[in-house]
Design goal:
Number of helices: 10
Number of strands: 25
Helix content: 25-40%
Distance between the termini: 129 Å
Radius of gyration: 56 Å
Strand content: 25-35%
Shape: rod-shaped
Strand order of the largest sheet: 3-2-1-4-5-6
Length: 524
Amino acid sequence: MKPFTWSPRATTALRRGAAVTAALLVALAAAGVPATAAEGPSREEVYKQLGVAEQPVDYVILVDTSGSMKAKGRYDTVRSTLRSFLGGLTPADHVALITFDDRPEARYIGSAEDPAAIVGRLPKKPDANGGTDIGAALDQGLRELERDDAASVASVVMLTDGKHQPPRRSTYPKSSGPPWKALRKRADALAGHTELAGYALPLASGASGADRLGDVVDNTVVLRPGSIQDLGRYLQRAGDSTRARSAAKLLADDKGKGVTASWRTAGARDVTDGSATASVTFRSATARVPLTVSDTRVSVAGAPLDVSGVPRRLTLDPGESRTYSVHLTGKPGGGGSFRHTEGASAALRVSGKVSSPWQQALAPDLNLKVPASVGTTGDPLRVRAEVGSALLLPGILLVLVAVPVLVALRWLRVNRPALTGVLTAAPVFANAIPDRFPLTGRRVTFRPHGGGLGTVHGRRRRTAQGPRVDLMIRYVPDGVTGRPDRVVCAPGARAVVGGLAFTHRTDGATAAPGYAGVRPEGPR
């Protein structure tokens, strides 16, 4: 025999298949989904996590033992099938096994712990001459559910092959009437505080007796086996439905509850440098149901900020809170103005799809009605930033100071330029030695030997020959009152005022000894 070898084409196909499988596993892992159970847990796994088996359920099982049940081996099939059905219950469940023909009789009342012992309480064969008093059977079944320690979930299972045919002295002589209304009223009262349901299994065509259960228990399902051999499968459906109702009872408080998100950070966040950190907390409002948020995106309203740091997919256990550190980038606007603090309120916004990994397993019997979106709670996050130019205000202040200074300096330069040279003064009509006054500073006060008081300051002028400084001379002789006379004297020129001739010497000559007093002054 030749050894087996792979063809090149088969090898390529295997490699491609392996690559696709690996990629799928990586994608499932990245999404946080186990590769072996991408579709979520099974219903049995959900029931186990919920502890459905630990929740007690009341089962009232009504078995027809009239003579017709002997036909076609119906009674034997019921006995054998009931054992399998009871085997699916838990020791926490309570069983009331009641047979009925002319009258009902409780064969077993107690825990479902030992299915064989319970079925062993059934009579070996039906009563060949017995009737079918369904009303009396339902009356005894309701009495069992009306006990003080009854469970909050109850099922009434009726197996009959006939119709209501009671004995003469029965309280329920007909299939309707006041006694049946009384039964219905009692069942409705039970349903007010108990998750009550009925399961009727007619075992023969025309077995209208099973429909009487629906006349009493409002929430009744009639399961019609195609043949007596289908009884086990239909009993299993009744059991499965009861377990689903038990799960629904446990999950009733979780219906319509989902995920909320809120800021956890206290105080304002400083985003002057364009970034900051904060914390966002996701909370599950459920007590039993795990929740998943997929395609999660966090944003804010009211502030130009981007938020990152929350995973795209997250799963929360029942009642779990999970906090994520997020990175804020951006800052409130307000540039191009004075340096100041700009504040804003960043309202949290979360997009994403909320679901439960249990929903698929529990459908269609139970809809958790999980809100599809993440709700937001709590106050907005306060953010602040220093915005605007730090140099603008000092610059404006500098301009406000500099402009007057510059104006003052220009005024001084024009109206009070620095004086240079010597000013001489002599009487116009007398031959006397002139007084000589050195010009320094910006304004000079002088007293000639002949008396009087005068001042001199300069004024800059523009001429065709260029700028020059003229002297503005004021002089008042002694004994003269009123406003002093003023005369303008150009450099090197001669001017007369108050009887004195003034000459401006710019050649740097100094005053002769004994000249009249001179007192330089500042600008005025």
